[in-house]
Amino acid sequence: MSTAMNFGTKSFQPRPPDKGSFPLDHFGECKNFKEKFMKCLRDNNFENALCRNESKQYLECRMERQLMAPEPLEKLGFRDLMDGKSEAKDNF
């Protein structure tokens, strides 16, 4: 009886998200970069703007080791860090 009720239903075809999903770092290849970033966040009251350089280094590590799709750093919001300066350094 339950199969007769399913004729009108559409089948759901899941698909992976375009962005935001990437393999876990099972082998800890970028663990040091992640820990450095997390320490920076803790030390700065989780004010992520103060840890942008650490974030950039972590993402670069992930891209170099194919743990995420390569993206230009400018597209990830690091255009101002490309020449080595950061907003935090400019404020001093």
From TrEMBL:
<feature type="domain" description="CHCH">
    <location>
        <begin position="30"/>
        <end position="64"/>
    </location>
</feature>
<keyword id="KW-0963">Cytoplasm</keyword>
<dbReference type="Pfam" id="PF06747">
    <property type="entry name" value="CHCH"/>
</dbReference>
<dbReference type="GO" id="GO:0005758">
    <property type="term" value="C:mitochondrial intermembrane space"/>
</dbReference>
<protein>
    <recommendedName>
        <fullName>Cytochrome c oxidase assembly protein COX19</fullName>
    </recommendedName>
</protein>
<dbReference type="InterPro" id="IPR051383">
    <property type="entry name" value="COX19"/>
</dbReference>
<dbReference type="InterPro" id="IPR010625">
    <property type="entry name" value="CHCH"/>
</dbReference>
<feature type="compositionally biased region" description="Polar residues">
    <location>
        <begin position="1"/>
        <end position="12"/>
    </location>
</feature>
<dbReference type="GO" id="GO:0005829">
    <property type="term" value="C:cytosol"/>
</dbReference>
<feature type="region of interest" description="Disordered">
    <location>
        <begin position="1"/>
        <end position="20"/>
    </location>
</feature>
<comment type="similarity">
    <text>Belongs to the COX19 family.</text>
</comment>
<dbReference type="GO" id="GO:0006878">
    <property type="term" value="P:intracellular copper ion homeostasis"/>
</dbReference>
<dbReference type="InterPro" id="IPR009069">
    <property type="entry name" value="Cys_alpha_HP_mot_SF"/>
</dbReference>
<dbReference type="GO" id="GO:0033617">
    <property type="term" value="P:mitochondrial respiratory chain complex IV assembly"/>
</dbReference>
<keyword id="KW-1015">Disulfide bond</keyword>
